[in-house]
Amino acid sequence: MTSSSFDLTIRNGRISNADGSFSADIGVRDGVIVEIAPSLPAGTRDVDASGRWVLPGGIDSHCHIEQLSGMGVMCADDFYSGTVSAAFGGTTTILSFAAQHRGDSIPEVVAAYAKRAAEKAVIDYGFHLILTNPDETALREHLPQVIRDGITSLKVYMTYDKLKLDDYQLLEVMAVAGEQGALVMMHAENHDMIRWIAHRLLERGHTAPKFHAVAHDQLAESEATHRAIALARLADVPVLIVHVAGRETVDVIRNARRLGAAVYAESCPQYLFLEASDSDLPGVQGAKFCCSPPPRDADSQAAVWDGLKDGTLGVYSSDHAPYRFDASGKLPKGDATTFKEMANGVPGIELRLPLLFSEGVMAGRISIEEFVALTATNHAHMYGLAPRKGAIAVGADADLVLWNPERRVEVSAAMLHDNVGYTPYEGRVLQGWPETVFSRGRCVVQDNQLQVARGTGHYLARGRPEPLARQSAPSPERGRLSELIGLKRRD
Fold first, then answer.
1. Residue 195 contacts by C-beta under 8 Å, 6 or more apart in sequence?
2. How far is CA 89 from CA 93, 181, 184, in A?
3. Of 189, 211, 216, whose CA–CA distance to 201 is shortest?
4. Which residues contact 377 (CB under 8 A, 6 or more apart)?
5. Residue 489 pLDDT more than 80?
6. Least confident interval from 38-47, 121-130, 299-308, 470-479
7. DSSP sequence for 95-136
């Protein structure tokens, strides 16, 4: 090849994929990696990555962007600020949520989110569907259509008054998802347990943010997770449990997987780096640390690390839920806001990767290959983006991030690019930082400056998630039940 064959070359870096690390140069043409070999000739743009680790761009498959919550609160980040923040943190693909609220038409919801993102996103994006009204039209017409159009995953809730589905509805959704080839993501918490505890706390005047974690007891998470897995087994479909927080839940998932259940799971930075005690602050300051399920304790943190290490928790996402610390977000009633009234969620889209790189890779808890798997490769396979995304390979999109393992950064809200105004990780010192970010061969971030315009990200219509593709045949008992009640699986 001649130098004009490449639009971009990245030379002299240490390349890491989920299956190994090596030294080579990368040649890119038309946004796609076309050659990986030593000593490639310089391209039109030639980047010397000496002293840098070259990793696949991160995929954040769980983030809430420009979305109205179940409580009626709009996220602080739109698709511009959200994707800019993601890019500065080394993420080149996001999967956010197109949220149906009860009474909404699914096609209208998807069209509205698609328009917002197309006008503003600076990196590539796709959607999951949040489904809250699984009526006959949704299940038989609209859901199959959006799956065919490339939204091949959907999220359902077992809690929140305006979002939750009952077990019968969950089974109906699972059956359609299995038939059409989509992955079901579950927010697994027992609604009535939480409601019962919260009622008694409020009766006794316990309104401070720290009581949010008390109300969302570990048993509410582990019981709902066990039930979600049982429902998925009955419907004969895989299921993914999102934002796993507690040790008991990790154990439930690990044991179910050992018994052959097709259950997958995710965790997030807040369950590795925050604890329930962080919300025990004066006044309503603790609201900055409140999300659902809440962070637990050091024992649960250790369990989440173990789950990420042994594959029980296969993906690591941000669950970026950005709400400002004011009446527009966390504090609808100002200082009088109770733990039941504040918006649930913490920001994290920009710090997701640096936190895990520093405290996982640089601290020796996980290898660089495990980091890549947890932050990119596994997401691509889980959600139908492979082989286009998630690896540095010939034929893949040139989503590439140059990390400086020597750079130390003290985290502050002022340095971040979201629209939240605070970070629960204020003051942490991290080792290693993503300095140069490419998306489809375009330089998105360099020298701490954004290099691209709003609206230049691409929509990703996704294929069939791998958990559905690798489903094993049901047991004779399950197969007989499926035949009797008319369950179908897409081959």
1. none
2. 11, 32, 27
3. 211
4. 17, 18, 56, 386, 390, 391
5. no
6. 470-479
7. EEEEEPPTT--HHHHHHHHHHHHHHH-SSEEEEEEE-S---H
Task: Using DSSP bridges, classify how beta strands 32-37 and 20-29 pair: parallel, antiparallel or unpaired.
Answer: antiparallel
Closest CA to 72 of 335, 416, 327: 327
Residue 347 pLDDT > 70: yes
Is 302 in a helix, a strand, or coil?
helix
Whole-angstrom CA distances from 297 to 344, 360, 452 are: 19, 18, 41
Model confidence pLDDT, tens digit, residues 279-288: 999 999 999 9
**pTM value surpassing 0.90:** yes
- Give every CB contact of residue 456 below 8 A, 6+ residues apart in sequence: 121, 122, 442
Q: Which residue has the tokens 């290959």?
A: 369
The burial class, CB within 10 Å (0-12 / 13-18 / 19+), for 462 is buried
Question: CB–CB of 253/265 below 8 Å?
Answer: yes
pLDDT at 156: 98
d(CA 294, CA 297): 10
CA–CA separation, 451 and 59 (whole Å)? 20
Tell the residue number behind the tokens 């949010």, with chain if given. Answer: 212
Binned at pLDDT 50, 70 and 90, residue 2 comes out as: very low
Neighbours of 332 (CB within 10 A): 17
